[in-house]
Amino acid sequence: MLEKVTAALGCPAEIAISEDEETLVGTLSGSRLGLLIGRHGQTIDAVQYLANAILWRAHEERKDVVVDAAGYRERRRQSLQQLADRVAGQAHRSGEAVALEPMSSPERKVVHLYLQDRAGVETASEGAEPNRYVVIRPAGE
């Protein structure tokens, strides 16, 4: 599937597949992967969603599928964690909830998991797709 998508987009890539007990990862490398990543990662998120749907339909055993290109997922994870740190500090200091910009489900998951054990704040997703967003509020609010 990844070969067909990259060919259709006109962005040739080397594709490496790795797997562990819980996750199947397709890692793409090449010089023109910006088109595959898309604006704010929308295209790569859509490709990942389709890959998950195809795998889940074809196999009884469910594994998460992650599609990454040119290290995008790690860079985005770090960026989201830095944002979560800043906003969690702001919510804790001000005593008021702070809403983040709308983001995809995988991105919201990064924020929720990163802050789940952080003392003094809690997170919740609010809104309706495609404008669902994370709210970070002081714990117990």
Description of the molecule:
This protein has 141 residues and is an alpha+beta fold. It folds into two domains: 69 residues, K homology (KH) domain (GMP Synthetase, Chain A, domain 3); 65 residues, 2-Layer Sandwich (Ribosomal Protein S8, Chain: A, domain 1). Helices cover 45% and strands 23% of the residues. It contains five helices and six strands. The strands form two sheets. It has a three-stranded mixed beta sheet. A hairpin with a 3-residue loop joins strand 1 and strand 2. Helix 4 packs across helix 5. The model has no long low-confidence stretch (mean pLDDT 93).
Number of helices: 5
What is the correct CATH architecture of the largest domain?
A: 2-Layer Sandwich
> Average pLDDT value?
93
The ordered H/E elements are: HEEHHEHEHEE
Distance between the termini: 45 Å
Please give a handful of descriptors for the protein shown.
single chain, alpha+beta, GMP Synthetase, Chain A, domain 3, Ribosomal Protein S8, Chain: A, domain 1, 2 domains, three-stranded antiparallel sheet
